[in-house]
Design a protein that fits this description.
heterodimer, A: Arc Repressor Mutant, subunit A, 6-stranded antiparallel β-sheet, 9 helices, 16% strand, elongated, B: 7-stranded mixed β-sheet, two-stranded antiparallel sheet, 29 helices
Chain lengths: 238, 652
């Protein structure tokens, strides 16, 4: 059993710090708990933490982060440096894109994707990550509702790989599609859409785009404005 | 929402038995209601809201019961005021049974609503309405299987043709408590179990979990602090368990179950022919044909309401019937019996309550609202209203409104007072304020338009465009600014487009009748009160004082003769009087002066009846803010026009 800290563990540590910051936490205690919690996520390499190594491993990981200029430790607070943020951002992006891919595309349950996504995140290089992002239509959130950091491909709005999940606005008139997800924080709107049976899994047909969008769901024709349609992402049906 | 408040609010006696009619919007619920109750119904606004609720009587089994028609609802977790009222009625009237009306061709949505109602343990019957349309679309429903699955009686109907309605009426007393429920996540199911006794039913507990804020009053009335704490604890636990919104999770479970029922009992034969009907439906929405159709409908609507109603019929009733026969007779009668004094001035004087107030109500308002509601009910029965709104959405969005505002705006060219009442159809407070302000500021009513056109005829033709340009640009500018400045949101525009159908004239006439009666009752007192206030102003000298007070502003800032001041104050009494006042003194004014005066009078305050409606609908504070903005703004803009033209002398 080696005592060396692997790159994988450094990546894990960065991801944990990023997630903690999203939750508004920076304390060492939460970090340690997450880092050494065998329930959470990947890892054979964490088994050894069970034997009282927890504090030791935490110290060692933090030392490496500090040495590489990825994080700063002040008293009980741990803060990602700009360099650390850059590195963490890439990992979190991969992780959450991987989750999206598995839920939307491989029809896996939201609860089942954490572990494989953890493994996935260490395998992807930037190009593959961007391809997946494009394939999914540059999603904004992971299946658990956390924001996905944007990549280069998002700002260039690249659509060259025929994306399998596209915004409903990109569907051709007359085409049918199945709704993959609705990206909105507006609960009354979501509720209203659901009560018209517009939600993940529903099949819709796009009737027209101008002057208003008209979609058909079941036997109902609905007119909706663009602002609402833009939030709806669909899988095309052949 | 007090628990039994709905009974009190709807005037239901303590021992009266009640049935409630519930359904999604556009399922033909009100036609079913008519066929159950016959002629007599009592339409009123649900207290504290602008939502209409109808009440009638019907025979169920051997006894007569009260039956209540609720506003259309997609869900009992309320998003709109309509849905809130429906929920309150279901919770607060303790009905003997619920009659759910469903659109047979859209059964999935109706099932979602049914699953929510089923949680209340109230006996139900299901009416599958619009069976003809379902059949036309080759939708096949296994009614017997569905009956068994839901454990309630089901009656297929085609309401407008009265098919199946008498069987429905006879079958209401066979209502049963449905035996069906969605599979909620275990944690939610546990929470319902813990809460159902506290809240009185699973349904109420679910309403609490999905939208605790909406149930505040219910909890405050029904529970002690200890029970409230239990409820809060259960809720807190669920919040910790789920990262997603509870209402979303609950709706998802309901939707899944509805889908399940749907796929089990509803099938559709795949091939659907492109029928002529479908082609016509598409034509009304296609941009190339839909937009011309839209403008055609608006034009015909205006011709019917603004010309035939507001001019031809009004001229006949007001000018001939009242002007030449009724009013002279009443004047003679009053003067000969009580002589000329304070009372006779109030009754039949220059602004008499009878000679002006009552005359307007009957000769002016009645024809306008009758023609409008006739046209509206016809368009509604045909199914065109949602299409009208959809076509107008893009334009109205720019000024912070949405497609639903098209009717109040068009109606404003007929009568602003009545149009202000119809701003109720708008979803949010913000939209209602913007709509009301636009109507009051720059949409001239048909009476005023008539006189304005007469004035324009005396000026060079291009003045018309200058006037229209100034007024419409100011109108759009104000609405646009208001949409940026006012807090709050614009309502989402999601509207169902029901298939077009041949209108049923008895439905159209019935609806027109109820609406005319209701609006007439609301408007008449306002017109009478308005004329009364003006009479008092005249007698006490307040009116003359205002005219004098306005003079300096009119002379120096607007550059008009002093007499124009009278026209502005008269415009307050009635918009066309103001314009007519200008026409009287037009010989003494230059063309530029006329333009300035016409701009000012178009933008200037609405008539007194409109103002009273604004106060009634928007509340005194908002009303004062609107009026307080419009008066200085109208003079400001007209003054600027005056000074600009003078500055660049002879520009026109």
């Amino acid at each position: 059993m080696s005592d060396e800290i692997t790159q994988i563990e450094v990546d894990e540590a960065l991801e944990i710090l990023w997630t903690l910051e999203e939750e508004g936490k920076r304390d060492r205690e939460s970090f340690k708990k997450k880092l050494t919690n065998k329930e959470e996520g990947f890892s054979e390499h964490r088994r050894r933490f069970r034997h009282g190594y927890r504090e030791k491993v935490t110290q060692r990981v933090l030392a490496i982060l500090k040495k590489r200029g990825l994080a700063e430790v002040e008293d009980t607070d741990i803060k990602l440096t700009n360099k650390g943020k850059g590195a963490a951002r890439v990992i979190v992006r991969r992780h959450r894109l991987a989750e999206r891919l598995m839920v939307d595309f491989l029809d896996m349950g939201k609860e089942d994707v954490e572990r494989p996504a953890c493994e996935f995140e260490h395998l992807l290089d930037e190009e593959v990550t961007d391809s997946i992002c494009t394939l999914l239509g540059h999603p904004k959130e992971c299946p658990h509702g956390m924001p996905i950091p944007k990549g280069k491909c998002c700002s260039s709005g690249k659509k060259t790989i025929e994306p399998a999940i596209i915004p409903l606005t990109d569907l051709q008139v007359g085409e049918s599609a199945e709704i993959a997800y609705i990206h909105t924080k507006d609960h009354p709107r979501l509720h209203k859409l659901l009560s018209y049976d517009i939600g993940p899994g529903s099949e819709v047909q796009l009737h027209q785009k101008k002057p208003v969008y008209v979609i058909k769901t079941g036997e109902t024709d609905l007119a909706l404005e663009e602002e609402i349609i833009e939030d709806i992402y669909v899988k095309t049906l052949d | 929402m007090k628990i039994r408040y709905a009974r009190e609010a709807l005037g239901i006696e303590e021992d009266e038995d009640v049935s409630v009619l519930i359904g999604n919007p556009n399922v033909g619920k009100s036609v079913i209601f008519s066929s159950l109750t016959g002629k007599y119904r009592d339409v009123s606004n649900y207290p504290g809201t602008t939502v209409e609720v109808s009440k009638g009587k019907t025979k169920i089994g051997t006894k007569r019961e009260t039956i209540i028609d609720t506003p259309g609802a997609e869900s009992l977790t309320p998003v709109s005021e309509d849905e809130k009222v429906t929920r309150d009625i279901l919770l607060g009237t303790e009905p003997n049974q619920v009659i759910q009306v469903a659109d047979a061709k859209n059964l999935k949505r109706s099932m979602m609503l049914l699953l929510q109602i089923a949680e209340f343990d109230i006996p139900m019957v299901l009416d599958l309405n619009m069976m003809d349309e379902a059949k036309a679309r080759l939708v096949d429903i296994d009614i017997d299987g569905l009956k068994e699955e839901l454990n309630i009686p089901i009656f297929p109907t085609v309401a407008p043709e009265r098919r199946g309605t008498s069987a429905l009426k006879r079958g209401i007393n066979k209502a049963r408590v449905p035996d069906i429920k969605p599979d909620y996540p275990d944690e939610i199911e546990d929470a319902i179990d813990e809460l159902k006794d506290l809240f009185g039913s699973r349904g109420t507990a679910l309403l609490f979990l999905a939208a605790p804020n909406e149930m505040k009053e219910f909890i405050e009335e029904k529970m002690g602090s200890e029970e409230r704490e239990i409820a809060e604890d259960v809720l807190g636990r669920l919040y910790k368990t789920f990262s997603q919104d509870l209402s979303y999770l609950i709706t998802l479970s309901i939707r899944e179950k509805a889908e399940n029922i749907f796929s089990k009992f509803v099938s559709k034969k795949e091939i659907e022919r492109t029928t002529l009907k479908k082609k016509i439906n598409d034509l009304t929405m296609d941009p190339w044909t839909g937009i011309p159709i839209f403008f055609g409908v608006i034009f015909l609507l205006y011709q019917f309401v603004g010309y035939i109603g507001a001019q031809v019929i009004v001229d006949f009733l007001e000018g001939i019937i009242f002007g030449e026969y009724i009013n002279p007779y009443i004047e003679d009668l009053v003067y000969s019996s009580i002589g000329e004094n304070f009372v006779s001035t109030i009754l039949v004087g220059e602004y008499g309550v009878i000679t002006v107030g009552v005359t307007w109500a009957i000769a002016l308002i009645l024809p306008i609202i009758t023609t409008f509601f006739l046209a509206f009910s016809l368009l509604e029965d045909v199914g065109y209203i949602p299409r009208l709104a959809a076509m107008a959405d893009r334009g109205l969005r720019k000024v912070g409104l949405n497609g639903k505002a098209v009717l109040p705006m068009v109606l404003g060219f007929g009568c602003d007072t009545m149009a202000t009442l119809t701003t109720r159809v708008l979803d949010t407070k913000k939209e209602r304020i913007i709509g009301t302000t636009m109507l009051a500021l720059g949409i001239p009513c048909s009476a005023q338009l008539g006189v304005l056109f007469a004035i324009m005829a005396t000026l060079p033709f291009y003045f018309f465009f200058v006037w229209a340009g100034i007024v419409s640009s100011q109108l759009l500018f104000v609405a646009w600014s208001a949409s940026k400045i006012l807090p709050g949101k614009r309502g989402d525009f999601i509207i169902e487009l029901p298939p077009l159908r041949v209108p049923k004239w008895d439905n159209v006439l019935k609806k027109t009748y109820y609406r005319v009666v209701m609006f007439f009752k609301e408007l008449v007192p306002l017109f009478i009160l308005g004329t009364f206030l003006i009479s008092v102003g005249k007698i006490t000298g307040v009116l003359d004082f205002l005219i004098k007070a306005l003079e300096p502003l009119v002379v120096t800032w607007l550059g008009l003769p002093a007499e124009a001041s009278i026209a502005f104050i008269l415009g307050f009494l009635r918009r066309d009087f103001g314009a007519a006042g200008l026409l009287d003194i037009s010989v003494r004014m230059t063309n530029v002066q006329m333009l300035v005066a016409v701009v000012a009078i178009t933008l200037f305050v609405p008539c007194v009846a409109n103002m009273l409606v604004i106060i009634k609908e928007r509340g005194i504070k908002t009303a004062m803010a609107i009026i307080g903005f419009i008066i200085p703004f109208a003079f400001f803009v007209a003054g600027i026009v005056n000074h600009l033209i003078n500055l660049f002398g002879g520009l026109l």
